[in-house]
Amino acid sequence: MKVEKLSAFAEIISSVAIVLTLIYLAIQTQQNTAAIQATTRQAMLAEDRESLYKLIEFPDLALRCNLTSTQETQVRAYMVAFLKMRESQWIQFQNGALDEAIWTSYRQPLAGLVLNSELGRAVWQEARDRFDPGFAKTVDEMMRDTEVVPCE
After folding, report:
1. What is the pLDDT of residues 106-127, one digit of tens each?
2. Is 2 part of any domain?
3. Single pTM value for the model
4. C-beta of residue 110 within 8 angstroms of C-beta of residue 86
5. Is residue 130 part of a domain?
6. Is 65 exposed, middle or buried (0-12, 13-18, 19+ CB in 10 A)?
7. Is residue 74 a contact partner of residue 85, using CB atoms and an 8 Å limit?
8. Is 36 inside a domain boundary?
9. Residue 62's domain spans which residues?
10. Do 142 and 115 touch, CB atoms closer than 8 A?
11. How many domains does the chain have?
């Protein structure tokens, strides 16, 4: 009888240990997810700062009308780089590294920096096939809801 009681006691201890291990792993997973999200947001902020610094260093990148051929080449390259940066962030959102509120705040500048100009729309149409199909669909939907600001 002693062996049976000892076996039952060991089984209870084992079950408790498994439950405690699962709780510990769940906490570790939550902490790891939070760390990944924080790292992703930090990288996004660094990318955005770099993009803004480029606009400060080369203010012509903000122009979309009456461009010289050199300026147009620079603006087109900047727009494609900006789109690639947003595509990367969209992928992070799709993978769960960003929540919807963060992604929404990062997608909004697409309309103002790219999609609200004829040049930006032309750049998008030319480069569209080089982007993830899901991201392309997202940008296409945004473009339908964004009015073109005419050149003055």
Report:
1. 888 888 888 999 999 999 999 9
2. no
3. 0.74
4. yes
5. yes
6. exposed
7. no
8. no
9. 43-144
10. yes
11. 1
